[in-house]
């Protein structure tokens, strides 16, 4: 099997006379890491497409390879087998905000713009626009230590959006936050995602979001993908037809979460029997 990671097609994922290509195409991807007893298979034959504008959550038990898969899509590592294609370079947001503490909120965003080649006179106005988009207007001059945990994650989101990618990869970005702040940021992320997909330029923002929280997965996603315990395989997928806006305590969210939790428990039990 050929092993490649490529960036395919133009930034909007379209070509003349053709349907839009996926925001991410993961084809028969496996990943092994060396261990004391030989190579350990972490991901096994993963095939998954993320459509333009789609919000997909990756769910599974700890150690099933969710973050490994996200790193492969981001290009931070290479698969042992299979191919990954993305139209342009994805933007990545981690559990930790990873902001530079010696820079202000705005300067953190401006740095991303600089690396993207945005001319200097345009960077501050663009950074202020992005801060306003995540509801942090006026925070350009704030130092990282002056911001709450939720505000830091909003800046991290604005910095990810500054990369102007059509694919946003999120690795448990709200896991360390308290429940109320996390719920607020669920609303903010959903709002930003919808606003990006209403852009008149026709370019769509897709999100691939890793979590181990079942209700968070259902609260946010259009599709939930469950990975089996190690080695990670696509065990099952659910289309989430619950209208947005959703609340994490909504009855429909709770009902689907119960079903997915039972499947997740089954995967954990099967893993424990090996």
Automatic annotation (TrEMBL):
Pfam families for the chain: ABC_tran
UniProt cross-references to CDD domains, sorted A to Z: ABC_NrtD_SsuB_transporters
Segments for region (Disordered): 1-21
Keyword Cytoplasm: no
Domain ABC transporter: 24-256
Keywords, alphabetical: ATP-binding, Nucleotide-binding, Transport
Alphabetized GO MF terms: ATP binding; ATP hydrolysis activity
Ranges annotated as spanning the membrane: none
Compositionally biased spans, kind Low complexity: 8-21
UniProt entry tagged with the keyword ATP-binding: yes
InterPro entries on file: AAA+_ATPase, ABC_transporter-like_ATP-bd, ABC_transporter-like_CS, ABC_transporter_ATP-bind, P-loop_NTPase
Listed PANTHER family: ALIPHATIC SULFONATES IMPORT ATP-BINDING PROTEIN SSUB, TAURINE IMPORT ATP-BINDING PROTEIN-RELATED
Name of protein: ABC transporter ATP-binding protein
